Amino acid sequence: MDIKKRTFQIAVILAIAYYIIDALIGALSDKETGFFEMLITAVPFQELYSRLLAVAFIIILGIIFSYFISITPDQQKKKGNKEHTMSSDPMLMVNVSNHIRTPLNAIQGFIEMLDDTDISNSSRELYINHIRTSSKFLLELINNVTDITLIESNSLYLDKTECKLNEVMSDIQSKYNLVVQESQKQELKVQLKTNIRDKEFTIMADPKRLRQILENLIENAVHFTDEGTVEFGYMMREENNIEFYVKDTGQGFSEERLKILMTQTGQMVDKRMAPFDIASLRIKIAMKLVDLMGGVFKASSQVNKGSDFRFTIPVKINALNKEEGPGGSLEDYGTHGEKEYADGEQWAGKTILIAEDVESNFIYLSEILKDTGVNILWAENGKVACEIAKRNSKIDLILMDILMPEMDGYEATVKIKEDRPEVPVIAQTAYHLDEDDYRDAGTYFSKVLIKPIWSHDLMNALEEEFK
Fold it and tell me: Quick check: 33 pLDDT over 50?
């Protein structure tokens, strides 16, 4: 029986019992009035009225209580079995802690070694590469823990916006061409193929999560492939339905391991996997994201021959050249889709105000922008940002941290917009934003960048505002 119905019934029984017991006590105290007479008439009338009010009050309390009462042990057990996830596992933090220590140990150790003024340039470059690799691993681990928690608690928000698909795909290709170069895998090539070549091809989707799915799969492909090709792309087979794919000529997975990976279980990681196997987590998270998007995920793999991951998601087509459409064969997108920023000062004369309370973050953003020709101003908090924006009428754009001392980014943006409503404000934050937060942020900011902010994401955001 439903717990609310059961609670309501108990409240009614208690109310009737109270009514009867109250009448019995009244009959015992008044010898001249019998029990049944007291039960029915309850002379004087005021006593009956008070008794009925008490009964109604008990029933109302029961109804209210039914919405807040704890569930029964059996139901709690069932719910616990259903909702128990890796993120609620007490061993999770142990696993996370163990995996955090390894890259932190490397980062700390190599930083200390860099203090040695006598080290050679080759050793210095080696140490820096190790620090970069360990930092990347550490960041991915933190992101994975966040994603696991959000997915398993049904708190992940899909922000469907207009997405220029070929632009996103070519950005990913450019990123992993650079990754391959840095890893010195000279015999490995990253290829992008599509059957839609329209640069303005626009769909309604969550570009961040779509990019995450593809990058999770490409990251694995590049890591486990030393030579040959990592090929990715998409094919629009029918209207509003796109199939994406990532395939490689690398190590591949055994049939047993692939079966474990593709098993849709309540937990993100199967017990037969090594705890926090990053490669497996990437695939699991990609699968879950595809499922949230209403899509279908497929995979095939052979040891030493490579893997082929595919997923189909329903999308709304917003813009497509009439000469192109569903069907057609895949073609190498080549360098046509690769975005290149002009060397030198493409934004000379522009002024950007960076509101950021952490100096190292400000320096990082400044370094990304140093070759673009922009004039950079720094505000240590929201209050200072308001003062600078009020004094300087030449500010073309503001990068606004959300959580700052003195005055947060929301309040600062409101005050700045009162005098300068035309100035675009791009938020930057390290905090997770849920659906309500994103909707709220959209009323304040033209765009929201989640830290860590990669250089290409920042450049893309600025290009959209300055075009």
Answer: yes
